[in-house]
Amino acid sequence: MLVKAEVLAPPAEDELLLLGLGSPAPSPSLPSSAEEEEEEEEEEEEELRAAPPARPVEAPGGRGLRRAEGKRRPGRSRGAPRAARTAETAQRIKRSRRLKANNRERNRMHNLNAALDALRDVLPTFPEDAKLTKIETLRFAHNYIWALTETLRLAGAARLGPDGAAAAVPAEGSPSPASSWSGGAASPAPSASPYACTLSPASPAGSASDPEHWPGRFAPGPPPLPRRCL
DNA sequence: TAGGCCATCTGGTCCT
DNA sequence: AGGACCAGATGGCCTA
């Protein structure tokens, strides 16, 4: 299958994502940024700290106009019943926690996407600006690691062979991630062996001799990895 | 217009 | 109790 030239996003999108500004389609009904939601949350917290305002009392014919605006309520007895107010407070607290959890979840997904972008950066793509989808990135990375592992293994075997022939090298133009393994902020696998996490180097998706697996970017799903391996 | 991809919200579960 | 993680639902955007 051919490489899908996905040019949805200009290269700058990665930067935006890393800055947490990359959400192209925020829900219209929701705050457009985390900050706004933060504000909303602040508001909620503020409201929580203060006494929950009584529901606007509708004047009989008054279209929601509040009577005695600006005047303090005389006493508690005039407000909503205690049960109602506590229920309302509980609702507000619940809502506030939900908003916080939403924020955390959003950040978590942004971090995940940033990691995915870092992974994309070390994977060779053709053409250069083609952006792999998430699933493609993971599958490609899986196969890519496997292929590099095979390359190293074959190179080692060749060195030990009778003729000492030259070892296979990664395809030209491939920004070999191996070069960055020695260090760097985004080094994908500092010291961990590709064999780690029970990932068999034999083949990520079947027989090692199967040409589908390398550089088969769209190879059908590799065998499921153990959870928390990726 | 259908389908793919994505971001976000949400409630549940597990962990610290 | 609060945070992390997860999976399902939903809606927007884009492309064939």
Biggest sheet descriptor: none
Instruction: Tell me, briefly, the overall form.
Output: rod-shaped
Quaternary organization:
single chain
- Cα radius of gyration in angstroms: 28 Å
Percent helix range? 25-40%
**Unreliable runs, pLDDT <50, ≥5 residues?**
1-77, 164-230
GO biological process, one term: positive regulation of transcription by RNA polymerase II
Biased composition (Low complexity): 50-60, 165-209
Keywords: Developmental protein, Differentiation, DNA-binding, Neurogenesis, Nucleus, Transcription, Transcription regulation
GO molecular function, one term: DNA-binding transcription factor activity, RNA polymerase II-specific
Commentary on this structure:
The chain is mainly alpha-helical. About 40% of the residues lie in helices and about 0% in strands.
Label this structure with key terms:
DNA-binding, rod-shaped, nucleus, DNA-binding transcription factor activity, RNA polymerase II-specific
Describe this structure in a few short sentences.
The chain has 4 helices and no strands. With 230 residues, the chain is an all-alpha fold.
Topology, pairings included?
Blueprint: H1 12-18, H2 34-49, H3 82-121, H4 134-160
Helix pairs in contact: 2-3
The structure holds a DNA duplex (16 and 16 nucleotides).
